[in-house]
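[stage:ingest] chain + small molecule (P-hydroxybenzoic acid)
[stage:ingest] validated
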Amino acid sequence: MRVQVAIVGAGPAGLLLGQLLYRAGIDTMVIEQRSQDYVLGRIRAGIIEQVAIDLLDEAGVGSRMHAEGLIHAGIELCFNDVRHRIDLKGLTGGQQVMVYGQTELTKDLMDAREAASLPTVYEAEDVSIHDFDGEQPRVRYVKDGLAREVSCDFIAGCDGFHGVCRASAPAGILRTYERVYPLGWLGLLSETPPVSEELIYSSHERGFALCSMRSRTRSRYYLQCSLADTVEQWTDRMFWDELKRRLDPEAAESLVTGPSIEKSIAPLRSFVAEPMRFGRLFLAGDAAHIVPPTGAKGLNLAASDVRYLSRALIEFYSGSSDGIDGYSGRCLQRIWKAERFSWWMTMLLHRFPDADGFDRRIQEAELDYLVHSVAAQTALAENYVGLPFRD
Ligand code: RFL
Ligand code: PHB
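[stage:predict] done
[stage:export] C-alpha coordinates:
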Protein backbone atom coordinates (compact mmCIF):
# COMPACT_ATOMS: atom_id res chain seq x y z
CA MET A 1 0.00 0.00 0.00
CA ARG A 2 1.20 3.52 -0.80
CA VAL A 3 -0.22 6.88 0.31
CA GLN A 4 1.10 10.41 0.34
CA VAL A 5 0.83 10.86 4.11
CA ALA A 6 0.70 8.03 6.67
CA ILE A 7 -0.87 9.24 9.91
CA VAL A 8 -0.08 7.34 13.10
CA GLY A 9 -2.85 7.77 15.71
CA ALA A 10 -6.60 8.39 15.38
CA GLY A 11 -6.96 10.98 18.14
CA PRO A 12 -8.16 14.49 17.31
CA ALA A 13 -4.79 15.48 15.79
CA GLY A 14 -4.57 12.51 13.41
CA LEU A 15 -8.23 12.55 12.35
CA LEU A 16 -8.35 16.31 11.83
CA LEU A 17 -5.14 16.26 9.78
CA GLY A 18 -6.56 13.41 7.68
CA GLN A 19 -9.75 15.35 7.00
CA LEU A 20 -7.99 18.60 6.06
CA LEU A 21 -5.60 16.77 3.71
CA TYR A 22 -8.47 14.81 2.16
CA ARG A 23 -10.25 18.11 1.38
CA ALA A 24 -7.06 19.28 -0.35
CA GLY A 25 -6.85 16.11 -2.47
CA ILE A 26 -3.97 14.52 -0.55
CA ASP A 27 -4.41 10.84 0.26
CA THR A 28 -3.77 9.53 3.75
CA MET A 29 -3.98 6.39 5.78
CA VAL A 30 -4.64 6.48 9.53
CA ILE A 31 -3.10 3.71 11.64
CA GLU A 32 -4.38 3.43 15.22
CA GLN A 33 -3.40 0.85 17.81
CA ARG A 34 -6.66 0.92 19.78
CA SER A 35 -10.20 0.00 18.74
CA GLN A 36 -12.57 2.70 17.49
CA ASP A 37 -14.80 2.24 20.56
CA TYR A 38 -11.85 2.62 22.91
CA VAL A 39 -10.78 5.89 21.27
CA LEU A 40 -14.36 7.19 21.46
CA GLY A 41 -14.79 6.13 25.07
CA ARG A 42 -11.93 8.26 26.42
CA ILE A 43 -13.34 11.25 28.28
CA ARG A 44 -10.94 14.14 27.87
CA ALA A 45 -11.10 17.76 26.78
CA GLY A 46 -14.18 19.91 26.93
CA ILE A 47 -13.18 23.42 25.88
CA ILE A 48 -12.33 24.42 22.33
CA GLU A 49 -10.97 27.75 21.18
CA GLN A 50 -12.03 29.74 18.14
CA VAL A 51 -8.91 28.49 16.32
CA ALA A 52 -10.06 24.90 16.69
CA ILE A 53 -13.66 25.82 15.80
CA ASP A 54 -12.46 27.48 12.59
CA LEU A 55 -10.34 24.48 11.68
CA LEU A 56 -13.19 22.03 12.22
CA ASP A 57 -15.33 24.21 9.95
CA GLU A 58 -12.55 24.24 7.38
CA ALA A 59 -12.46 20.44 7.61
CA GLY A 60 -16.23 20.40 6.90
CA VAL A 61 -17.14 18.73 10.20
CA GLY A 62 -18.47 21.69 12.18
CA SER A 63 -22.24 21.43 11.76
CA ARG A 64 -23.08 19.32 14.84
CA MET A 65 -20.57 21.30 16.89
CA HIS A 66 -22.37 24.56 16.03
CA ALA A 67 -25.76 23.00 16.76
CA GLU A 68 -24.86 21.36 20.07
CA GLY A 69 -21.80 23.21 21.41
CA LEU A 70 -22.29 25.78 24.15
CA ILE A 71 -20.66 29.19 23.70
CA HIS A 72 -19.06 30.54 26.87
CA ALA A 73 -18.28 34.22 27.25
CA GLY A 74 -16.65 33.98 30.67
CA ILE A 75 -15.27 31.78 33.43
CA GLU A 76 -15.45 32.11 37.19
CA LEU A 77 -12.58 31.99 39.65
CA CYS A 78 -13.57 31.00 43.18
CA PHE A 79 -11.47 31.53 46.30
CA ASN A 80 -12.22 32.46 49.92
CA ASP A 81 -15.84 31.38 49.28
CA VAL A 82 -16.42 34.11 46.68
CA ARG A 83 -16.70 33.77 42.89
CA HIS A 84 -15.18 36.37 40.54
CA ARG A 85 -16.15 36.41 36.89
CA ILE A 86 -13.53 36.82 34.17
CA ASP A 87 -15.34 38.36 31.22
CA LEU A 88 -13.51 36.61 28.39
CA LYS A 89 -15.63 38.23 25.71
CA GLY A 90 -15.49 41.76 27.08
CA LEU A 91 -11.75 41.63 27.77
CA THR A 92 -10.73 40.20 24.40
CA GLY A 93 -12.84 42.24 22.01
CA GLY A 94 -15.50 39.59 21.53
CA GLN A 95 -13.69 36.27 21.67
CA GLN A 96 -15.33 33.27 23.32
CA VAL A 97 -14.76 29.54 23.77
CA MET A 98 -17.01 26.58 23.13
CA VAL A 99 -17.91 23.63 25.30
CA TYR A 100 -17.97 20.61 22.99
CA GLY A 101 -16.58 17.32 24.24
CA GLN A 102 -13.52 15.77 22.63
CA THR A 103 -15.58 12.58 22.34
CA GLU A 104 -18.15 14.35 20.15
CA LEU A 105 -15.54 16.06 18.03
CA THR A 106 -13.72 12.74 17.54
CA LYS A 107 -16.99 11.08 16.54
CA ASP A 108 -17.70 13.80 13.96
CA LEU A 109 -14.23 13.31 12.48
CA MET A 110 -14.57 9.52 12.45
CA ASP A 111 -17.98 9.76 10.75
CA ALA A 112 -16.58 12.10 8.08
CA ARG A 113 -13.64 9.74 7.46
CA GLU A 114 -15.98 6.80 7.17
CA ALA A 115 -18.37 8.69 4.85
CA ALA A 116 -15.46 9.46 2.50
CA SER A 117 -14.29 5.81 2.70
CA LEU A 118 -10.79 6.87 3.70
CA PRO A 119 -8.46 4.06 4.76
CA THR A 120 -8.25 3.70 8.53
CA VAL A 121 -6.82 0.77 10.43
CA TYR A 122 -7.88 0.29 14.05
CA GLU A 123 -6.32 -2.28 16.37
CA ALA A 124 -3.02 -2.18 14.51
CA GLU A 125 -0.37 -3.99 16.56
CA ASP A 126 3.40 -3.46 16.72
CA VAL A 127 3.31 -0.19 14.80
CA SER A 128 6.80 0.95 13.79
CA ILE A 129 8.13 3.73 11.54
CA HIS A 130 11.15 3.52 9.22
CA ASP A 131 13.36 5.45 6.81
CA PHE A 132 11.99 8.92 7.51
CA ASP A 133 15.51 10.29 6.99
CA GLY A 134 15.09 9.41 3.30
CA GLU A 135 12.55 10.08 0.54
CA GLN A 136 10.51 6.93 1.05
CA PRO A 137 9.43 6.47 4.68
CA ARG A 138 7.44 3.39 5.69
CA VAL A 139 5.07 2.41 8.48
CA ARG A 140 4.83 -1.23 9.48
CA TYR A 141 2.19 -2.86 11.63
CA VAL A 142 0.48 -6.16 12.26
CA LYS A 143 -3.25 -6.59 11.65
CA ASP A 144 -5.16 -9.83 12.15
CA GLY A 145 -1.86 -11.62 12.60
CA LEU A 146 -0.45 -10.42 9.25
CA ALA A 147 2.51 -8.04 8.87
CA ARG A 148 1.68 -5.01 6.66
CA GLU A 149 3.63 -2.09 5.29
CA VAL A 150 2.58 1.34 4.04
CA SER A 151 5.06 3.42 2.07
CA CYS A 152 4.53 7.17 1.92
CA ASP A 153 6.08 10.61 1.32
CA PHE A 154 5.60 11.73 4.93
CA ILE A 155 4.72 10.29 8.33
CA ALA A 156 2.58 12.37 10.70
CA GLY A 157 3.24 11.26 14.27
CA CYS A 158 -0.12 11.98 15.92
CA ASP A 159 0.13 9.10 18.35
CA GLY A 160 -0.04 10.91 21.68
CA PHE A 161 2.38 11.09 24.59
CA HIS A 162 3.06 7.33 24.80
CA GLY A 163 3.27 6.78 21.04
CA VAL A 164 5.98 5.24 18.91
CA CYS A 165 6.83 8.24 16.71
CA ARG A 166 8.61 10.51 19.20
CA ALA A 167 10.29 7.41 20.65
CA SER A 168 11.70 6.70 17.15
CA ALA A 169 13.24 10.17 16.72
CA PRO A 170 17.06 10.21 16.70
CA ALA A 171 18.18 10.58 20.30
CA GLY A 172 21.04 12.90 19.41
CA ILE A 173 18.67 15.50 17.95
CA LEU A 174 15.62 15.25 20.22
CA ARG A 175 15.57 17.52 23.27
CA THR A 176 12.87 17.30 25.91
CA TYR A 177 11.72 19.67 28.64
CA GLU A 178 9.52 18.44 31.44
CA ARG A 179 7.83 19.38 34.70
CA VAL A 180 5.85 16.78 36.64
CA TYR A 181 3.45 18.16 39.24
CA PRO A 182 3.02 16.24 42.50
CA LEU A 183 -0.76 15.89 42.14
CA GLY A 184 -3.52 14.49 39.95
CA TRP A 185 -7.03 15.34 38.79
CA LEU A 186 -9.87 13.03 39.66
CA GLY A 187 -12.59 13.56 37.04
CA LEU A 188 -16.26 12.58 37.29
CA LEU A 189 -18.87 12.67 34.54
CA SER A 190 -22.57 12.62 35.48
CA GLU A 191 -25.95 13.03 33.84
CA THR A 192 -26.80 16.05 35.99
CA PRO A 193 -27.32 19.73 35.08
CA PRO A 194 -24.15 21.84 35.52
CA VAL A 195 -23.94 23.75 38.79
CA SER A 196 -23.42 27.04 36.96
CA GLU A 197 -23.81 28.46 33.45
CA GLU A 198 -20.04 28.98 33.21
CA LEU A 199 -16.99 26.99 34.35
CA ILE A 200 -15.88 27.49 37.96
CA TYR A 201 -12.15 27.18 38.72
CA SER A 202 -11.89 26.96 42.50
CA SER A 203 -8.76 27.41 44.59
CA HIS A 204 -9.46 26.00 48.06
CA GLU A 205 -7.35 25.06 51.05
CA ARG A 206 -8.43 21.42 50.57
CA GLY A 207 -7.25 21.56 46.95
CA PHE A 208 -8.33 22.75 43.52
CA ALA A 209 -11.74 21.92 42.02
CA LEU A 210 -13.23 22.55 38.59
CA CYS A 211 -16.88 22.55 37.57
CA SER A 212 -17.23 21.98 33.85
CA MET A 213 -19.86 20.45 31.61
CA ARG A 214 -20.56 18.65 28.38
CA SER A 215 -24.13 19.89 27.81
CA ARG A 216 -27.03 21.42 29.72
CA THR A 217 -27.77 18.02 31.22
CA ARG A 218 -24.30 16.52 31.56
CA SER A 219 -21.62 17.74 33.96
CA ARG A 220 -17.91 17.16 34.25
CA TYR A 221 -16.23 17.87 37.58
CA TYR A 222 -12.63 17.58 38.70
CA LEU A 223 -10.94 17.46 42.11
CA GLN A 224 -7.25 17.84 42.77
CA CYS A 225 -6.19 14.54 44.35
CA SER A 226 -3.05 12.76 45.45
CA LEU A 227 -1.17 10.74 42.85
CA ALA A 228 -1.36 7.83 45.28
CA ASP A 229 -5.19 7.87 45.16
CA THR A 230 -7.11 5.29 43.15
CA VAL A 231 -10.50 5.71 41.47
CA GLU A 232 -11.86 2.77 43.51
CA GLN A 233 -11.05 4.63 46.72
CA TRP A 234 -13.32 7.52 45.72
CA THR A 235 -16.99 6.59 45.97
CA ASP A 236 -19.42 8.95 44.21
CA ARG A 237 -20.61 10.10 47.63
CA MET A 238 -17.07 11.01 48.71
CA PHE A 239 -16.52 12.89 45.46
CA TRP A 240 -19.67 15.00 45.79
CA ASP A 241 -19.04 15.75 49.47
CA GLU A 242 -15.49 16.86 48.73
CA LEU A 243 -16.55 18.97 45.74
CA LYS A 244 -19.13 20.79 47.89
CA ARG A 245 -16.46 21.59 50.47
CA ARG A 246 -14.28 23.20 47.80
CA LEU A 247 -17.01 25.46 46.35
CA ASP A 248 -18.61 28.67 47.62
CA PRO A 249 -21.75 28.13 49.75
CA GLU A 250 -24.17 29.11 46.96
CA ALA A 251 -22.64 26.71 44.45
CA ALA A 252 -22.38 23.94 47.06
CA GLU A 253 -26.06 24.45 47.88
CA SER A 254 -27.25 24.31 44.28
CA LEU A 255 -25.00 21.44 43.13
CA VAL A 256 -27.11 18.61 41.71
CA THR A 257 -25.47 15.25 42.36
CA GLY A 258 -26.10 11.85 40.77
CA PRO A 259 -24.42 8.58 39.86
CA SER A 260 -21.13 8.87 37.98
CA ILE A 261 -20.95 7.66 34.37
CA GLU A 262 -17.16 7.76 34.38
CA LYS A 263 -14.41 8.45 36.89
CA SER A 264 -10.70 8.65 36.17
CA ILE A 265 -7.46 10.07 37.55
CA ALA A 266 -5.04 11.99 35.32
CA PRO A 267 -1.52 13.06 36.32
CA LEU A 268 -0.45 16.65 35.64
CA ARG A 269 2.56 17.22 33.46
CA SER A 270 4.21 19.86 31.29
CA PHE A 271 6.35 18.45 28.49
CA VAL A 272 7.80 19.70 25.20
CA ALA A 273 9.90 17.81 22.64
CA GLU A 274 12.01 19.81 20.20
CA PRO A 275 12.22 19.85 17.25
CA MET A 276 8.94 18.56 15.87
CA ARG A 277 10.32 17.49 12.51
CA PHE A 278 12.89 14.77 11.76
CA GLY A 279 13.38 14.52 8.01
CA ARG A 280 10.03 13.29 6.73
CA LEU A 281 8.54 12.63 10.16
CA PHE A 282 6.42 15.34 11.80
CA LEU A 283 5.17 15.20 15.36
CA ALA A 284 1.83 16.86 16.17
CA GLY A 285 -0.34 17.18 19.29
CA ASP A 286 0.34 15.23 22.49
CA ALA A 287 3.09 13.27 20.69
CA ALA A 288 5.21 16.43 20.94
CA HIS A 289 3.88 18.23 24.00
CA ILE A 290 1.72 17.88 27.10
CA VAL A 291 0.16 20.60 29.22
CA PRO A 292 -1.56 20.23 32.58
CA PRO A 293 -5.33 20.49 31.89
CA THR A 294 -5.80 23.63 34.02
CA GLY A 295 -5.58 25.99 31.04
CA ALA A 296 -7.73 23.75 28.75
CA LYS A 297 -5.05 23.91 26.07
CA GLY A 298 -4.12 20.31 25.09
CA LEU A 299 -6.67 19.70 22.36
CA ASN A 300 -6.38 23.26 21.14
CA LEU A 301 -2.62 22.97 20.76
CA ALA A 302 -3.11 19.75 18.81
CA ALA A 303 -5.42 21.69 16.47
CA SER A 304 -2.87 24.48 16.19
CA ASP A 305 -0.12 22.03 15.12
CA VAL A 306 -2.48 20.43 12.62
CA ARG A 307 -3.29 23.83 11.17
CA TYR A 308 0.41 24.43 10.47
CA LEU A 309 1.08 20.87 9.30
CA SER A 310 -1.87 20.67 6.91
CA ARG A 311 -0.93 23.99 5.34
CA ALA A 312 2.72 22.96 5.09
CA LEU A 313 1.92 19.67 3.36
CA ILE A 314 -0.57 21.29 0.99
CA GLU A 315 2.13 23.87 0.12
CA PHE A 316 4.65 21.07 -0.44
CA TYR A 317 2.42 19.37 -3.00
CA SER A 318 2.01 22.72 -4.75
CA GLY A 319 5.79 23.00 -5.08
CA SER A 320 7.14 24.81 -1.99
CA SER A 321 8.97 23.32 1.01
CA ASP A 322 8.86 26.56 3.01
CA GLY A 323 5.95 25.34 5.14
CA ILE A 324 7.52 22.04 6.12
CA ASP A 325 10.86 23.73 6.81
CA GLY A 326 9.21 26.29 9.12
CA TYR A 327 6.80 23.81 10.74
CA SER A 328 8.66 23.07 13.95
CA GLY A 329 9.63 26.68 14.70
CA ARG A 330 6.13 28.04 14.07
CA CYS A 331 4.46 25.40 16.22
CA LEU A 332 6.90 25.77 19.09
CA GLN A 333 6.38 29.53 19.36
CA ARG A 334 2.72 28.94 20.09
CA ILE A 335 3.30 25.83 22.18
CA TRP A 336 5.65 27.51 24.64
CA LYS A 337 3.13 30.29 25.27
CA ALA A 338 0.42 27.75 25.98
CA GLU A 339 2.88 25.82 28.17
CA ARG A 340 3.59 29.01 30.13
CA PHE A 341 -0.10 29.79 30.57
CA SER A 342 -1.01 26.23 31.63
CA TRP A 343 1.89 26.13 34.10
CA TRP A 344 0.86 29.52 35.51
CA MET A 345 -2.82 28.54 35.95
CA THR A 346 -1.70 25.29 37.59
CA MET A 347 0.70 27.01 40.01
CA LEU A 348 -1.90 29.67 40.85
CA LEU A 349 -4.86 27.44 41.63
CA HIS A 350 -3.58 24.21 43.23
CA ARG A 351 -2.36 23.41 46.74
CA PHE A 352 1.07 21.85 46.52
CA PRO A 353 2.19 19.34 49.16
CA ASP A 354 5.66 20.93 49.41
CA ALA A 355 4.51 24.59 49.42
CA ASP A 356 5.55 26.78 52.33
CA GLY A 357 4.03 29.96 53.76
CA PHE A 358 5.84 32.12 51.22
CA ASP A 359 4.43 30.16 48.25
CA ARG A 360 0.95 30.45 49.71
CA ARG A 361 1.17 34.21 50.26
CA ILE A 362 2.35 34.65 46.67
CA GLN A 363 -0.70 32.70 45.43
CA GLU A 364 -3.00 34.83 47.57
CA ALA A 365 -1.39 38.04 46.33
CA GLU A 366 -1.67 36.92 42.72
CA LEU A 367 -5.36 35.99 43.06
CA ASP A 368 -6.10 39.31 44.74
CA TYR A 369 -4.16 41.18 42.04
CA LEU A 370 -6.05 39.29 39.37
CA VAL A 371 -9.51 40.23 40.57
CA HIS A 372 -8.56 43.89 41.03
CA SER A 373 -6.55 44.47 37.87
CA VAL A 374 -8.13 44.69 34.43
CA ALA A 375 -4.65 44.27 32.93
CA ALA A 376 -4.13 40.96 34.76
CA GLN A 377 -7.60 39.73 33.82
CA THR A 378 -6.99 40.68 30.19
CA ALA A 379 -3.77 38.65 30.18
CA LEU A 380 -5.65 35.64 31.53
CA ALA A 381 -8.54 36.11 29.10
CA GLU A 382 -6.45 36.48 25.93
CA ASN A 383 -4.51 33.34 26.78
CA TYR A 384 -7.61 31.37 27.76
CA VAL A 385 -9.46 32.09 24.50
CA GLY A 386 -6.27 31.33 22.54
CA LEU A 387 -3.54 33.63 21.31
CA PRO A 388 -3.85 34.80 17.71
CA PHE A 389 -1.83 33.17 14.93
CA ARG A 390 0.96 35.37 13.65
CA ASP A 391 1.10 33.52 10.33
P1 RFL B 1 -4.43 11.58 21.63
O1 RFL B 1 -5.84 12.02 21.82
O2 RFL B 1 -3.72 10.98 22.78
O3 RFL B 1 -4.44 10.55 20.41
C1 RFL B 1 -3.31 9.78 20.07
C2 RFL B 1 -3.78 8.49 19.45
O4 RFL B 1 -2.64 7.70 19.06
C3 RFL B 1 -2.88 6.35 19.44
N1 RFL B 1 -1.57 5.67 19.56
C4 RFL B 1 -1.06 4.89 18.59
N2 RFL B 1 -1.50 4.56 17.37
C5 RFL B 1 -0.71 3.75 16.63
N3 RFL B 1 0.48 3.26 17.05
C6 RFL B 1 0.96 3.56 18.27
N4 RFL B 1 2.14 3.09 18.68
C7 RFL B 1 0.19 4.42 19.10
N5 RFL B 1 0.36 4.92 20.33
C8 RFL B 1 -0.72 5.68 20.60
C9 RFL B 1 -3.66 6.46 20.73
O5 RFL B 1 -4.39 5.27 21.00
C10 RFL B 1 -4.57 7.63 20.43
O6 RFL B 1 -5.79 7.25 19.84
O7 RFL B 1 -3.51 12.76 21.10
P2 RFL B 1 -3.87 14.02 20.13
O8 RFL B 1 -4.63 13.56 18.93
O9 RFL B 1 -2.61 14.75 19.99
O10 RFL B 1 -4.91 14.90 20.98
C11 RFL B 1 -4.53 15.53 22.16
C12 RFL B 1 -5.71 15.64 23.13
O11 RFL B 1 -6.32 14.36 23.25
C13 RFL B 1 -5.28 16.14 24.51
O12 RFL B 1 -4.31 17.15 24.39
C14 RFL B 1 -6.46 16.70 25.32
O13 RFL B 1 -7.38 15.72 25.63
C15 RFL B 1 -5.96 17.36 26.60
N6 RFL B 1 -7.04 17.83 27.47
C16 RFL B 1 -7.69 19.03 27.21
N7 RFL B 1 -7.38 19.75 26.11
C17 RFL B 1 -8.06 20.89 25.82
O14 RFL B 1 -7.74 21.54 24.81
N8 RFL B 1 -9.12 21.34 26.59
C18 RFL B 1 -9.51 20.66 27.69
O15 RFL B 1 -10.49 21.06 28.32
C19 RFL B 1 -8.77 19.47 28.06
N9 RFL B 1 -9.11 18.77 29.14
C20 RFL B 1 -7.42 17.09 28.58
C21 RFL B 1 -8.44 17.60 29.42
C22 RFL B 1 -6.79 15.88 28.89
C23 RFL B 1 -7.17 15.17 30.00
N10 RFL B 1 -6.51 13.94 30.25
C24 RFL B 1 -7.17 12.74 30.59
C25 RFL B 1 -5.11 13.78 29.91
C26 RFL B 1 -8.84 16.91 30.54
C27 RFL B 1 -8.18 15.72 30.86
C28 RFL B 1 -8.61 15.04 32.13
C1 PHB C 1 -13.24 19.69 30.80
O1 PHB C 1 -14.41 20.05 30.63
O2 PHB C 1 -12.90 18.51 30.70
C2 PHB C 1 -12.22 20.72 31.12
C3 PHB C 1 -12.56 22.06 31.06
C4 PHB C 1 -11.61 23.02 31.38
C5 PHB C 1 -10.35 22.63 31.75
C6 PHB C 1 -10.00 21.28 31.79
C7 PHB C 1 -10.94 20.32 31.47
O3 PHB C 1 -9.43 23.58 32.09
